[in-house]
Design a protein that fits this description.
- Two copies of one chain form a homodimer.
- Chain A has helices at about 15-30, 45, 60-70, 90-100, 115-130, 155-175, 195-200, 225-235, 275-285, 295-300, 305-325, 350-355, 375-380, 405-410; strands at about 5-10, 35-40, 50-55, 105-110, 135-140, 180-185, 215, 240-245, 290-295, 330-340, 345-350, 395, 400.
- Chain A has about 400 residues and is an alpha/beta fold.
- In chain A, the strands form three sheets. In chain A, strands 3-2-1-4-5-10-11 form a seven-stranded mixed β-sheet, sandwiched between helices.
- In chain A, a hairpin with a 2-residue loop joins strand 12 and strand 13.
- In chain A, helix 1 (about 15-30) runs parallel beside helix 11.
- The first copy, chain A, is elongated, with a radius of gyration of 22 Å.
């Protein structure tokens, strides 16, 4: 089907989301049916404001593609705008499809998480009802690794590699003084503990785990159990290292650190579970405790990514574009794992309707029996995702980026 | 002079301190006069407990040296033990020199900051008074870059590179949403603002600074001035990025975040200047604000170091050992800069008595007139220190380390 195309990005940034953009763009750009390839600035929210950037004149060399691939965060800009139903917001749907018509858009590729897949689903359904000949395709993206329908999500592998490496480094730092102390590292993960699980990859040369305890949202958190676990660690060694997901909560579902603030999606804003625990340990044990929140760093550390993750992110972008060009709609490009070692995968298409709004938590068998570390099975799952490094182009000692959203603003 | 040697590490960790250990060891190991080369575990505090590790059998291959070089934090362990005067603690001096005699130690090389140089000075003076034929030599180390007598300190370049890169990444992340927001990043620096100054290196392709405002301890901090500065930034753009040193204080010398706790050196424990400012901005402007504390990450990020820094750190270790073998005592190996571009330096020996306990703050001319960013002169100083990258040996996707202190514990 001849026509133009929009590629856009949505949801929280990752350091691999632009690799997916590269893949989708490159696949689209060599197809004779495709005219203009627009970047949608700030996702569907920007598209509603007709913020479209013609990508072909910009992504016109290998070097530009390389820069885009190594740029952290969504180069096109992102949004946290969740499309409501056509019944609730008929004017939004009318506006979007008016813009699609104005720019002769036939293909819409959305790189994002489960909220974004909901958008892909809704737009696709609306197009069917309205008899619009259009293709809607999703590419997964989230450091949280919590999308159903795919073995793992682009962005997670790089986040896992960064977190595991950081844990290794902090563990070295934490043991330099001959004194009793503890570090508590808080990682992202509201409902799923994938990122905290990744900390279990941190090992020394003798394959000893470098973090002692891991707490994820999958298991109700109890401060009594935590203090018992910590006492057991401290019976063996002076320095303890603990990882907590931001979303840990008690058996009543109450978050350890409940700020009482919600974001525009109605999700509760969290933060501080690590510092709450650090205060507790300081008070109860009187030892030196530091709490470190990895915050944005864990999702934008493009200087240190997983080669596997970036390769897969780009290939999934290509695979989504291929499917779209082949006439598939309402699908998300996804990864099916065939084996852990050797690591083998194939790409498949998942129904966005099944991905939308669902959350994939860490399976019970990926945790140890005490639910405070990864099991061997969990490690088998994680290891392939962090292998390989990516070379980064530097100028004056620092990485250089291609930010498409600023090019739009300053065009 | 024939005899044995101790090399030890002290003070806060860096990601380059083990490169200096490599340099000192390698230089000592090929000299025919030197018998055993001991690693002092946990600095002078561990030496007092006779914690010595024979390094030759361990550092016996290029691969082991390579692993040691890429290991973050003090591989030998460190201490925050400050030696008092011989009058105050005669028994400590007697004990240390008894151990020196027992192990036939003729050379003592201490890698550390200004407190450690004070130790080198005191031990050297005591040896003179006691007519002990011994050499005491210092190698500088601190991410804080606040030692006098040297153009810059090993460890700072890697920290600066990490901080500038992180600022670039967070800047990309901070601009993905089309909304008013701010990020405040807190970096280390109690009395000197070198690390916050390094954030000014963060640039985009058009050489625009990626952090908008920088506040260092050198200039008394005023919240009124800060809010005015921020308003000026926000008049130009939606997203602001601010860097603060942990040690910013008002014109009365009161720290922005005064915990009221002091460490064993009597230094005030700080932390939270960034979150205090974030609270202020949230309250006054009602925009989304995140505060990020780089905490230990900025000093142990061995996965991403400056090639210049690691090379110089190792060379200074060698230079210190060379001087020691040549009979120099009471000195610290130091860097003298000859030119910025091309970057040229020479190594010299500074008197430890001049380095001990002194602090080198950022010169006024390295700041802009408003004292909230680097000047061109400041950038000229910083740029050469972060150039070049180091390849890291990985296993299963993660760096591998050589931790000598744990080898001592588990020997």
């Amino acid at each position: 089907m001849k026509g133009n195309c929009i590629i856009a990005q949505s949801g929280g940034p990752t350091s691999a989301i632009n690799a997916s953009l590269c893949g989708a763009f490159l696949e689209m750009s060599v197809n004779g049916d495709i005219g203009k390839i627009y970047g949608g600035i700030n996702g569907i929210q920007g598209i509603l404001e007709e913020k479209l950037l013609d990508l072909r004149p910009i992504l016109n060399s290998d070097n530009q593609i390389k820069l885009l691939r190594q740029t952290p965060a969504a180069s096109l800009g992102s949004c946290r705008f969740k499309l409501k139903s056509p019944e609730e917001r008929p004017e939004e749907y009318a506006k979007i499809f008016q813009i699609f018509e104005k720019y002769d858009i036939r293909y819409f590729i959305y790189i994002g998480g489960n909220d974004s897949m909901d958008t892909v689903y809704r737009l696709g359904e609306y197009a069917k009802v309205q008899n619009r000949e259009m293709i809607f395709m999703g590419v997964p993206k989230t450091i949280d690794n919590d999308l159903v329908g795919t073995d793992h999500t682009p962005g997670f592998g790089s986040c896992a590699k960064y977190v595991a490496t950081t844990v290794q480094e902090v563990a070295q730092d934490n043991m330099v003084y001959d004194m009793d102390c503890a570090v508590i590292i808080e990682v992202m993960g509201r409902d799923a503990g994938w990122i905290s699980l990744a900390a279990s990859l941190a090992r020394d040369k003798e394959n000893q785990a470098q973090c002692d305890l891991i707490y994820s949202p999958e298991t109700p958190f109890s401060t009594e159990r935590f203090m018992r676990d910590l006492a057991a660690v401290r019976a063996q060694k002076k320095q303890a290292l603990v990882i907590v997901s931001e979303g840990i909560r008690d058996d009543q579902g109450k978050y350890l650190s409940d700020t009482g603030i919600t974001d525009s999606f109605g999700h509760q804003l969290l933060g501080g579970a690590g510092s709450v625990l650090a205060d507790l340990v300081r008070r109860e044990l009187g030892i030196k405790v530091r709490s470190i929140e990895l915050s944005l760093l864990q999702r934008c550390a493009a200087h240190y990514t997983s080669a596997t993750d970036l390769r897969e992110s780009e290939e999934l972008g290509r695979f989504a574009a291929k499917g779209a060009l082949g006439g598939l709609t309402g699908k998300m490009a996804a990864i099916r794992r065939l084996s852990d070692d050797p690591y083998q995968t194939e790409y498949v298409y998942a129904d966005v309707s099944e991905v939308a709004n669902a959350v994939k938590t860490v399976p019970a068998e990926y945790f140890n029996a005490a639910r405070n570390h990864a099991s061997y099975r969990g490690l088998q799952y994680l290891v392939p995702l962090i292998t390989g490094s990516n070379e980064i182009l530097l100028e004056h000692g620092l990485p250089i980026y291609l930010n498409l959203a600023s090019m739009y603003t300053h065009r």
